[in-house]
Amino acid sequence: MADDLDLLERDLGDQLRRTLHAVADTPPSIDRSRSARRRRVFGGAALAAVVAIGGVAAWQSHDDGEIVRIPVEQALITGEGSSGDWWLLPSQHTDVCGNPMPGVELVSGQINKPGYEWNTGGVAYGEHGEDPCVFDGWERLGDPALSNIGYSRIGYERDSTPWGGFGAVHSSVTAVRVSADDSAPFVTESVPRADDPDGPRYVAFSMPSDTVSVTIETIDADGDVIPGSAKTTHLQ
User: Fold this and answer.
1) Chain center to CA of 148
2) Tens digit of pLDDT for each residue in 89-141?
3) pLDDT at 48 over 60
């Protein structure tokens, strides 16, 4: 266990240092498709790095509590790859005001083991505004082109670790089309949370470790791409 913890600490430290360099070299921007919400504040530049892990994560959770077990029976979507199993779960955390976090989070089995702190990335269909205790859901906008997409490595932050994508979409969106680099696009279906079957829907998928650019488009019940929904992200 001690060796595993030392490895995790070293890898997360390397990830933080790489991200701090990236943040320093990147001009600030505002994108209403993302909402920055944190379970734990590290302070100063470190907080900026957590916001920008992978450059695109919607929120990143580093919880003080130790993991007892991963509630895999709650998973909306499951997957496996070279870094092990992963699950898209309803959010397991609370916001800075102690309210249950909406949405979902991507949990990698490799870096979320019993006795470790939670280390996940997640999204919700909306954002916290000026009042951090109030969540503004986007479902009321009735815009099926609007999505909230995040990405993170599924496991230790290494060049060989696959990428995971996770997203929140409008309740009318049945699937998203994923175009990664020059590979043929693939479609992944959306699913709702069991406790909100008529509410926002969620997607998760994995991609090769060397993926550079990803475009996401939302798809309606007729199988058509929704105009104006294309969203391109550069991962590295």
Assistant:
1) 9
2) 999 888 888 888 899 999 999 999 999 888 999 999 998 888 888 899 999 99
3) no
Cα 211 from Cα 205, distance rounded (Å) = 13
Rounded to an integer, what distance in angstroms lies between the CA atom of residue 120 and that of residue 110?
A: 11
Q: What is the pLDDT of residues 179-203, one digit of tens each?
A: 999 999 999 999 999 999 999 999 9
Tell me how far apart the alpha carbons of residues 221 and 236 are, in angstroms, rounded to a whole number: 33
Tally of CB atoms within 10 A around 198:
8
Distance (Å, rounded) from C-alpha 105 to C-alpha 121? 5
Confidence (pTM): 0.76
Q: Give the contacts of 177 (CB within 8 A, at least 6 positions apart).
A: 185, 186, 187, 216, 217, 219, 225
Distance CA 188, CA 116 (A): 31
Average pLDDT over residues 55-78: 77
Residues 6+ apart with CB under 8 A from 86: 78, 79, 80, 106, 107, 108, 109, 154, 164, 204, 206
